[in-house]
Amino acid sequence: MMIWESRFSEFLIANSTLSEQTVLQIVSRLRPFSGWLKGHNFPSGNTDRIKKYGRIAAASESQIREYFNVLTSDGRVAGYRQHVKTAVKKYFDYLVDVGAIKAKPSLEFPIRKSAADTGKEKPRLSEEDVQLFRDAAIGRDRFLLECMVCLGARVHEIELLRASDFDIKNNIVRLRSTKTEGKSMYGGARSVPITPMLMEAFVEFATDPDNNERLFKITKNRMGGIVKAIAVSLGLDWVSPHDFRHYCITKFSSQTGGDGYTPIFREGELSKMFGVSPKVIAETYYHPNIKDTVDKAMASGFTI
């Protein structure tokens, strides 16, 4: 690592709840930007700052915007550019915190989809796909899978799960998140209902409901490896643990009452259950079916 990379990494690990792996990813997204800045001109008086904090510390707003234009021209998809933008923001937050700069440059420019994003939408798990995974998972791996499918939990939240988090009396599971801990609106501990499939798996594999040890004594990477091995065997090698979170939240958000139209769960309830804002629920996880939408309009006698 370069000096600036090491200092930034140490700062994030000491002053945030980010995992070391996440910190490494953030730094890796800054490295190409630093390389791109090599050979660019900087205002005078930045020599010492560059030596201590790297070229990014001296980058101007126009240079930052130019770099993102280059990423777009090079065919980088919007998701990647957004990750880079987040990393750049964190780096300038760090520079302000350590007194290297007085104010951050403005990063208030939109990340728009480009031609590289066209047709790149990732497939989503269907009920048939999930059933294939359920049929293929054996033993405790089946319990792990049900936690992913039924709780919509992040992998690190499943890693933290204990048998005592399953409140059978009140039919809920309590989840803890290091990612959102301390965030007042949608962060920290939250509760998700226990579905019948999850209850069945819990009763079978959690022999001591009061046990305060972790249910799955394996790492997040190992959990991902288990999913990947099953996915490859099924010819669904694009599937990752996050796809089960996406599937679960989408299923919860699309549930309707007896009339077939009224949502069972309000956006605020979904946000509290899954630790994301209503905007993210609406834009990322809710996928309305156009036929259902038309049927609702016709059945309701809707007119303009």
Question: What characteristics describe this protein?
Answer:
DNA polymerase, domain 1; globular; 3% strand; 53% helix; hpI Integrase, Chain A; mainly alpha; 14 helices; 3-stranded antiparallel sheet; 2 domains; 304 residues; single chain
Q: How would you describe this protein?
A:
By secondary structure, the protein is mostly helical. The chain has two domains: 3-117, DNA polymerase, domain 1; 127-297, hpI Integrase, Chain A (Orthogonal Bundle), CATH 1.10.443. The protein has 14 helices and three strands. The chain has helices at residues 3-15, 20-37, 47-53, 61-73, 78-97, 127-136, 140-151, 155-159, 196-205, 220-233, 241-254, 267-274, 278-285, 290-299, and strands spanning 166-167, 172-175, 190-193. Strands 1-2-3 form a three-stranded antiparallel β-sheet. α1 (3-15) packs antiparallel against α2. The mean pLDDT is 85.
Brief overview:
By secondary structure, the chain is mainly alpha-helical.
Number of domains: 2
Low-confidence stretches: none
The backbone outline, from C-alpha atoms, is: globular
- Note the run of SSEs as H and E: HHHHHHHHEEEHHHHHH
Question: What top-tier CATH class of the largest domain fits best?
Answer: Mainly Alpha
For the termini, the CA-CA separation is 63 Å
In total, how many beta strands?
Answer: 3
- Largest beta sheet: strand ordering: 1-2-3
What amount of the residues lies in strands? under 5%
Structural class: mainly alpha
Helix fraction, binned, reads: 40-55%
Per CATH, the superfamily of the largest domain is Intergrase catalytic core
In quaternary terms, these chains amount to single chain
Q: Would you tell me the overall average pLDDT? A: 85
By DSSP (H or I, 4+ residues per run), the number of helices equals 14
What does the largest sheet look like?
A: 3 strands, antiparallel
Rg over C-alpha atoms, rounded to the nearest angstrom: 23 Å
CATH topology name of the largest domain? hpI Integrase, Chain A
What would you say the CATH architecture of the largest domain is? Orthogonal Bundle
